[in-house]
Amino acid sequence: MKRLHALVFLALLFVAACSGGGSTSNPDSPPPPAGTKLDVTLAATGSLPFDFQSTTPSGFRVMATKDEYIAFASGIGPPELRDIDYTQSSVLYLEGPLLDDLASVVRLVEVRRMDGTRDVVTGERCTPDVNAIPTPSRAYRSYAYYVVPKLLPPTTFAWVNAAPPSCATVSAAVNPTFIAEGKWNTVTGPPMPAFSFKVIRSQADLDALLPLFAPGAIPPQYMAPDFGQVTLLYLSQGIFDPNAYLRIGRVLVNDDDSRDVIAEFCGDFFPHVAFTGTAVLYAMPRFIDDARLTVIRHRAGSCFLSR
To answer: What pTM was computed for the model?
Structure first.
């Protein structure tokens, strides 16, 4: 009988060991679920001037209906966001603090659904120093628009700060190569269209723009470049100030592989008044993804980029 009791005791010990001993945790077991990352779409980026009166102190704004979007973003946000399906999606707007660094931007890190009952939104301020005191004449606010799934209340919003090149949402900036600048009188020369930005990926696209540059202004190696190796960036603007100029300072790569071209307009700016057309041409390593433009306007004497 004693031998039987001993065998039963050993069997119970074996079962306990195989089952982990009840309260003993397995170090190889996966961590608890951290929620589901939702799909989002970066729709637009840009900048707001120093004197813009911000109405989004938290830096986050959700527009759940077309009327809400029109009321807030009319004239600033992309018009195509009026036509999304607001029964399934919302527009999420992010706005950064006043900064004066061309590579400083705000982006959405993620929207994560926790337990299927609530959402957590995390934005990133990508800047060398988020607490820096900007020079007023140079300061601006970065913004971004995203299309996101309908958010579940209560939604939690949070910011994280990171300095380039360690940002999670934007890679290190690429400095494109300046090729040429063109200027012409819009009264006697070609008419100046509205502000224009083009990504040039073919010889035909380049040839259409050559008349805007003086003969010899474009170096020979860029008159017929290898578009399998390079992509050209064209930027033009009608200006009132004959001494004003355009320059491209940075090209950022977003986490969706799209490019953000950060340019600066230096000089006095009068919308809808232009006597001179100005254009610049830049080159950078070839890319095939989408590109969007942000222009930061500064008066002469306060510009980041020299001529």
So the answer is: 0.82
Tell me the pLDDT tens digit for each residue of 128-171: 888 888 888 889 999 999 999 999 989 999 999 999 889 999 98
Residue 184 near residue 276, CB atoms below 8 Å: yes
Show the domain range for 74.
36-162
In sequence order, which ranges of 217-278 are alpha helices (DSSP H)? none
**Cα separation, 231 vs 29, whole angstroms:** 48
Which residues are within 8 A (CB) of 173 and not within 5 positions of it... i.e. 6 or more apart?
103, 164, 250, 251, 252, 262
Identify whether 279 is part of a domain: yes
Total number of domains constituting the chain? 2
> Are 90 and 183 within one domain?
no
CA distance 146 to 122: 13
**Closest to 72 (Cα-Cα) out of 94, 89, 88:** 94
